[in-house]
Design a protein that fits this description.
about 325 residues, alpha/beta, Rossmann fold, two-stranded parallel ribbon, about 40% helix, globular
């Protein structure tokens, strides 16, 4: 990274989330200046925070005027609550309308950041469970809620190409593995109690990535000017839900013999959101690897081991306080 990279100001939406928090730490450690857009303005916080409210078309221009790079992570949590009509609207608008507001205001104030990087999700590829390996070149006609949301999300991101000279990068991400991931904690708890099991058939593929790898990929998207367009950001290992849970049991030295949680039970509990865990095909990360990225955690066993070790260190740290 050259001196000009070190001096760059990175504006992050959704900075308090799982990825945003860790990414902020890593950016600051590399010499970047980081700002957040959030509900409240607080310029004296550890991370200077500027206010925005997409529902009322409000945004603090001062944040945009300083941004060399914008990383758009904002979005209502997919796994929080059942997908009512209102929740679905919030899921879409918190991703799409926020991007539209950023673009509208940048045009209004005449500010063009060098790079716009947006999150997306492997839900883009639809709810199927098959042996097909999906790449970024696949054009799909899926019309389920998740794939439709992802298309709208990415269309909003690509609209930034209307700004002359900007570079737009979209990272399609899968399940994020981290000690701080609520979804991972929900997997660990039953396993800790000796009742871990696959979900549904267990044959669906789980596309995952360790938190540090996805954050390193965002940093690569800032620093490597050859990166442009869409990249699947998932670990290179293909593993089914049953395979992942079996690996988790192995790492935790726990039994793995309970019957799978039936799909109908998950649908009763989660409603339509159950599609996130009951479906999944293989997603290729060859494109980002061909671009030179090397995964720190390329197998589920490595990633799970690191996440559980980090969790243990965190618990020991709390006990000493």
């Amino acid at each position: 990274m050259n001196i000009s990279d070190k001096m760059k100001t990175v504006l992050i939406t959704g900075g308090t989330g799982l990825v945003g928090s860790r990414l902020t730490e890593m950016l600051i450690s590399k010499g970047y200046r980081v700002l957040w857009l959030s509900r409240e303005r607080n310029l004296h916080a550890d991370i200077p925070t500027y206010r925005w409210d997409y529902r009322n078309n409000e945004i603090d221009n001062e944040a945009l005027e300083q941004a060399d790079v914008i990383i758009h992570l904002a979005g209502s949590n997919l796994g929080e609550g059942r997908w009512s009509d209102e929740k679905k609207r919030e899921i879409v608008e918190s991703r799409v309308r926020t991007a539209e507001l950023l673009l509208e205001r940048l045009k209004l104030i005449g500010r063009i950041p060098g790079t716009f990087i947006s999150a997306s999700a492997t839900g883009y590829y639809g709810p199927g469970v098959n042996e097909r390996i999906f790449t970024e070149e696949d054009v799909l006609s899926e019309s389920d809620f998740l794939s439709t949301t992802c298309r709208k999300w990415e269309d909003a991101a690509f609209s930034f190409n209307e700004l002359p000279g900007i570079r737009t990068v979209i990272l399609r991400t899968g399940f994020i593995l981290s000690r701080d991931s609520e979804a991972f904690k929900k997997m660990v708890l039953p396993m800790r109690l000796g009742v871990g099991s696959p979900l549904g058939s267990g044959r669906q593929y789980l596309s995952w990535i360790h938190l540090d790898d996805i954050c390193r990929l965002y940093i690569s998207a800032i620093e490597d000017s050859t990166l442009q367009g869409v990249y699947n950001t998932v670990a290179p290992e293909y593993i089914t839900n049953a395979g992942f849970m079996r690996t988790l049991a192995k790492v935790m030295k726990k039994p793995f013999f309970f019957p799978a949680v039936p799909a109908f039970v998950l649908r009763l509990v989660m409603g339509e959101a159950a599609d996130m865990v009951l479906s999944g095909s293989r997603i290729s990360s060859q494109k980002i690897r061909d671009a030179g990225y090397r995964f720190q955690y390329d197998t589920a066993e490595k990633a799970i081991t690191a996440s559980l070790r980090a969790e243990g260190n965190q618990e020991r740290g709390k006990a000493k306080m």
